[in-house]
Amino acid sequence: MNRQIQIDHLAFNYNNNLVLENISLQVFQNDYVAIIGPNGGGKTTLLKLLLGFLKPTSGSLRILGKTPKEARLSIGYLPQQINFNLDMPISVFDIVLQGRLAKNKLFYTKKDKKIANEKLELMNVKHLKNKKIKELSGGQRQRVLLSRALTKEPKILILDEPTASIDPQGQKEIYKLLKELPLTKLIVSHDINILLQGVNKVAYINKTLHLHDEIDTNTYIKDGHFCEMELLDYFRNHKCSI
């Protein structure tokens, strides 16, 4: 199998406080990994390490056989919050094209514009390309930002709470689109329903990491209701693998 992320015995300290310890994880091509856990458990810190914004205190982390900084051009990233000045007269198409920016690049090429159009169509928002970002709903904005992340044509897509502040219908649409993307995906989410949306691995992080890759979510559906608390208790108390 094509291993794309390899983490071995990683630890991270911040101001002498141990945030992550003995983290080991392998992610293979086309894996869809949900990263869950309590607030303050280290989920966001792990994302920052994967993106090269932080360096491990100890242990090793390789992405596509490279350091996170070296692999950054192969990673699409959608952060939890992107602060736009909604009064800026910038179109959806201009925002998506920003994903094609590179060092010392002065002009967008025909290829850049073709890829931007393709990703807008993939996210079902091409009809909005000439709209201003302030004219869009929260769900539409997230699909536009996903389009921008995908214009990099990444091998790995990392998402931090991509459905936060979106209505339930918008969440379903985003989850459906994500499920169908044929690339490796890591998603941090407080929404336990993400586990019903096609993920094949669950990394539960609370300072340490426990990987679960054989979860039958149907076990936690009773009388048509998904029992989130029972499943969370399972992750807290069952040590599947490390």
How many helices?
Answer: 7
Cα distance, first to last residue? 19 Å
CATH overall fold name of the domain at 3-84 and 154-237: Rossmann fold
Spell out the CATH superfamily of the domain at 3-84 and 154-237.
P-loop containing nucleotide triphosphate hydrolases
Give the biggest sheet: 6 strands, mixed
CATH architecture of the domain at 3-84 and 154-237: 3-Layer(aba) Sandwich
Integer average pLDDT: 85
Explain what you see.
There is one protein chain. The chain is an alpha/beta fold and 242 residues long. The protein has a domain of 166 residues: P-loop containing nucleotide triphosphate hydrolases (Rossmann fold). 28% of the residues lie in helices and 26% in strands. It is built from seven helices and eleven strands. A six-stranded mixed beta sheet has the order 5-6-7-3-8-9, sandwiched between helices. A three-stranded antiparallel beta sheet has the order 2-1-4, covered by helices on one side. The protein has a two-stranded antiparallel ribbon with strand order 10-11. A hairpin with a 1-residue loop joins strand 8 and strand 9. About 2% of the residues have low confidence.
Gist of the model:
The protein is of the alpha/beta class and 242 residues long. The protein has helices at 43-50, 68-71, 92-97, 110-122, 138-150, 168-180, 228-237; strands spanning 3-14, 17-28, 32-36, 58-63, 75-78, 156-160, 184-188, 201-206, 208-212, 221-222, 225-226. The chain has a domain at 3-84 and 154-237: Rossmann fold (3-Layer(aba) Sandwich), CATH 3.40.50.300.
